[in-house]
Amino acid sequence: MSHRMLHAPCLRDAAAVLFLALLATTPAAARGRYYNHSGSIETSHPDWLSWMPGSASLASLSLPGTHDSMAFTSTGGDLTQTQSLSLRAQLDAGLRALDIRCRHIGDRFAIHHGVVYLNANFDDVLTTTTQFLRDHPGETILMRVKEEHTPEGNSRGFQQTFEWYRNQPAYSPYVWRGTHVPTLGEVRGKIVVLDNFSGGAYGVSWGSLALQDDWTVSTIFDIDNKWDKVRDHLGRTNAGAPPTLYVNFLSGSSVAAFPNVVAGGDGLSIRGVNDFAIDHLVGGNVQRAGVMMMDFPGAGLIDAILALNYRLLPSASILPGDFGTAFRNISYTLGGDAQARWYGLNAFLQNAAPGRYWHALALKGSWAGWMHTDGSYVQSDTMDDYTHLAFTSRTVTSAVSNGFLGGFVNAQLGALSGSTSDRALQLHGRVSSRFPFQLWSVVVKKAPGGLSNWAYSDYGTGYKASLGDYTYAVQAYSASDGVYLYEHGQFEGNVLRLTSGVDYLGDLGFDDILSSVRILGPYRATLCEHPSRTGRCFSTTQSLSDINAAAGGPWNDQISSAGIDFVGLR
C-alpha cells in the first residue's frame, strides 16, 4: 500500500483539484527536526529571499543563521564543532547569517574557533558566498567578521587586510559598502558585513546591534537558563523598534556542556535550546525573530524562523513553494491527538501567513479526501499515523444552506461504495455536479472517528454525517459571483444561480417559488412577477433574506422572470 497524491494541472489563478489518500505511515524523524548533526538536511531554500519585497528592511526580517559557521568538522573535537553542514549546504538550506572568525596571520585571515584552526581561510569563505550569490542573485548574506585568537607575523592591521580582501576583483562587486541597516532591495546579491573589529567602519557596526550572546552554559542543567535568555530576547525583538537589527545567539557551551548537547539535548530527559525554540516559534508566539544564530539547526527550526517572513507578503498572494517545505518540517514538532495537532497547525498558519482563509486538517488512520483549492496547498509527511494538511480558499462564502446541503448529502450516502478514496471521489463528484458554482472539500474517515482521530476547520456551510463504518465531512467555500435565488426565506432551500437574464424562470424550475435572493459581486437583479420581465418589478443590488422587504410587495412566491445587469467595474 502507498500514500499517493495526484495533482491536476494547476494554474496560479485557477482552481486546482487535489486527491489524497492515507494508506500507510512513515516514521517521524528523530528530535522533531529541530536538531541536525549530519552532513545533509531535509530542507532547501536557496531562493527564499527572492520572493520578499525589496522595500523590507533587513531589521524587519527573521533570518536563520549559524554560530561559528565554519566549525562544521570534528577538528578540535566536540567542544569546538558547532555545525554539521558545509558552508554552501548552509546557504542552500536557507541560512542567511554567518559568523566568521578570522585570525590575522601573515597578512591573511585563517578561520579559527578560538585557538583551533578550522582548516579554512577567508578566501574559502568569500569564494563560496560569492558563488552562491552569483547562482542566486535575489539573495543576500549577513556576515559577521570577527577578529579571533592571537595575530601573528603581520605587517599591517586587521582592518587593512580586510580591505585587501574586500577590494579583490573577484569579491569586490559582492561586498556592500554601506554602514546603515539596509533594505533588502539595496543589498540583493551582496554580502552585508556585520563589522566586529576595530579600525574603521566596514559595514553595520556590531556595537549598534541589539544583541544577546550569553554563551556560557556551565552544565547541561543550565540549558533551561540559556533558553530563558533566548526567549526574553525574542520578546524584545518582537516588540522592539522596527529599524533596530536584533541578533540572538542560541548557542552555548562549556567543558561540562558541549555545543551539541546545548543545542539538541541529551536525547533523554534534557531538552536542548533548539527544542525549546521550535516549540516557541511554531506556537505563534513571535512575529519577528530577528537574526538567530544557532548550533546544529535542524530543518524544522530553520523553517520555523524562515516562515515568519511570509507574513510580510500580501495576503491575497499565493504563497511560494518554499512554504510547503516549511509546513512539512514544522509538522514534526506537533504532538498529541488530532485536535491538539489541529490547534498547533492553526496557531502556526495564522501567525506565519495571516489574513488568509486557511482550511487546516489533522487526520489519523484510514481517510481520503477530494479538495478543490483556489489558493495555496501544503501537506506534511505521515508521522505517528497522522497527516497534516492545509489549503487556502478565496473566500469561505457558500451559496448553499446547511439544511439543503445536509438533505442532499444524506440522500447520496447509501449509494456510495468502495474504499475511503472511492467514497470521497463519488461524493465530491455528486456535490460538485449539483452545486457547480462553488468549491467543495470532501473528507471520508473510516472508523474510528472522533476528535482524537480527525479534526478540521469548519467554516460557513458544512455538513458531517455517518453511515456504517464511514463518516463524511463536506465543506463549501469560494462561491462564485452571481445572483442566487432561493425557494425559502433566509437563503434556505433549493438554489439557482444566475449571471444573465431569464425570460421565464419556469424553464429552470423556479417559477413563483422565489422567497430570498443573495447578490455576490457587482450585479443588479430586476425581478418581475410575469414572464419576459412584465408586470410589477423590483430591483436590488443587495441580498434580501425576505424579498417581501422590497418595496411594492408582497413578492414572495410571485416572481417569474429576472433581468441581470453588471454594476460598476467587474
From TrEMBL:
SMART domains: PLCXc (SM00148), XTALbg (SM00247). It comes from the Bacteria. Residues 1-30 form the signal peptide. Keywords: Repeat, Signal. It catalyses: a 1,2-diacyl-sn-glycero-3-phospho-(1D-myo-inositol) = 1D-myo-inositol 1,2-cyclic phosphate + a 1,2-diacyl-sn-glycerol. Residues 481-521 form the Beta/gamma crystallin 'Greek key' domain. The keyword Nucleus does not apply. Its EC number is 4.6.1.13. InterPro entries: Beta/gamma_crystallin, G_crystallin-like, PI-PLC_domain, PLC-like_Pdiesterase_TIM-brl, PLipase_C_PInositol-sp_X_dom. Belongs to the beta/gamma-crystallin family. PANTHER family: PTHR13593, SI:DKEY-266F7.9. This is 1-phosphatidylinositol phosphodiesterase.
